[in-house]
Amino acid sequence: MPEKQQKTISMRYSWYALFVMVMINTSNYVDRLSIGPAMEHLKRYFSASDTQLGWILGAFTFVYAIISLPMGFASDRGKRTFFVGLGALVWSIAATTSGFCKSFTGFFAARAAVGAGEGIYAPSGTALIADYFPRNKRATAISIFMSAMLIGGALAIIVAGIILKKTDKFDLERMAKLTPYSQGEQAGDCVYNGLHQTKHRLVSFDFDCGGEPLSVVLSNIDKKHEADARTILFNVDYRAGEAEPEGSLLEFASSFTDIVRDREDDDLQLVTAELKQLPSHFKLPAQYEGKLVFDEKAGLLAYKGIMTKDDLKALRDISDMPEYQKAVISISNEANFYFRRSDNWKWIFWILGPPGLIFALMAFMLREPVKGGTEDYLTESQAAAINAKGKIDYSPLWKTPSLVIMVFSNVIFTAAIGGLNMWLFPFVERYKGMESSEAAMKIGPIVVVAMLVGVVLSGIVSDMMFKKNKRAYNWIIFVCILAGIPFIYVFIMSDNYLAIVGAIAVGMFLLSWVNGPQNTLLVSVVDPKLRATMNAIHILLIHVLGDGPSPIIIGYLSDQYSLKFAFMWLPVAMLVGAVGFMIAGIFVPNDLKKLEQRMTGQV
């Protein structure tokens, strides 16, 4: 549609527009990444394989990428603020709907719809920022805009972790199997009154013992908690009204704990996992003879009884063979989550989805800037006159060497980063001894602060260095990726908590320097009327060829070998991407000069 002559937009309004865009981008990444901490819960809820989880992630990414292409063409011809608002509206509704899904197919479709909303929005994002800010402020503005990725990621990770922790409940139907008594039945000198979930999400087995109330309260095993008793899976506390039970009440509570201890493994007598063969030189410690059994004919590893965390550590120390490690971890998780509900992930989407609707409304009310109106080689009226011409030449998109090389380098880099982000919490839960909710609250804030500092600094430093050297963006990207790779390997291999936190924080701080300079350079080497289209093509390629297939590939490698094995290849892809970014820098000065010549030649 033809564009109307816009009023000149002041720098003050540009900063307001940037604020709105940051809020929208924050909502974008909240709804995109809030699935991360819920991955293991989704796996249990839908009884899904890692390959199926990869397809859920892929559903979002592929639809997002495919929808973005026609939206890019439409944005370059229409009002970009409209597409931003429409996208936010669609993904917010779809994210909220995710929480109501009861089947794998339904959730798959809902995540695809979230991808559709983000695909409508994405091509217009950095294109709008580029036209709100002149080149000498553009990297800083785009870096601030991209920092929303981290703010949104932080909110998604931390809030999702808190939600999972606060909504973690026991499965009362399974918990009822721990007692042989029916409600109202005589239990020695007491009458069993049933069980209920307390306000602190614990399970209380209630008795009336000759007019005196007695509660035996079970909670998840926690050795830091000074419980009255413990079973393999539970801390056990006794209550007689507001007091501690004594005498016969204490004796009955202790005897009931023995019953729980005897019955908690009734459905866990033999837990199995697929394993084609045992590791070479496999030597089983004497205490596990007869408990850990391998059925070569069936291709199954079986454990008799409940595998504790201490058992898991001892058995994992036997061999580093990926398939064996995965089987042992799977057996441990089956037992330790058996009595807990797996549907609390729904609250993540019910709480984090709706706020995006507010930001969608704010986007619809933004003023549209003139395409190319902030370029230093054009006046705003000249840019408007160029925009009024109906014909658009798309050939610069494939005739600009730095652009082509940057895009394909980012495909490789995004495959690695996207795979790492999507599988980070399952990796931490399986290999670092922390549940997703715990990791989200302990490690998440540290990593996010480190990345936020990196993103903002990258924009400021890039704007300063670009004035002196047109290849500065590319060198910054190359050096930071190269420096970050060793820390990613330390994170993958280390079992030390401080080393894990330090390595992932420093590694992600360095890798976060990529987004600001890279996105600024992409919109700066193409004609203003092609920016949304370029963004759309870029999005299509990095997601269809990058972080779309990478979670699926990682899930497949995890099913075939192990998640750790799959993770070992990610830094290699990062290195290949870094080399590509450096090579692209060779062509940047000449490509910028050609762009200026093309644009001034149309005036």
Structural class per helix/strand content?
alpha+beta
What is the count of structural domains? Answer: 3
Estimate what percentage of residues fall within beta strands. 5-15%
- The CATH superfamily of the largest domain is identified as MFS general substrate transporter like domains
Question: What is the first-to-last residue Cα distance?
Answer: 21 Å
In CATH, what is the class of the largest domain? Mainly Alpha
How many DSSP helices?
A: 26
Quaternary structure type: single chain
User: Which regions contain 5 or more consecutive residues with pLDDT less than 50?
Assistant: 1-5
Alpha-carbon Rg, integer: 28 Å
Shape: elongated
- The name CATH uses for the topology of the largest domain is Growth Hormone, Chain: A
Work out the helicity level: 55-70%
> How would a textbook summarize the main sheet?
6 strands, antiparallel
Brief summary of the model shown:
With 603 residues, this protein is α+β, with helices and mostly antiparallel strands. It contains 26 helices and 9 strands. 63% of the residues lie in helices and 8% in strands.
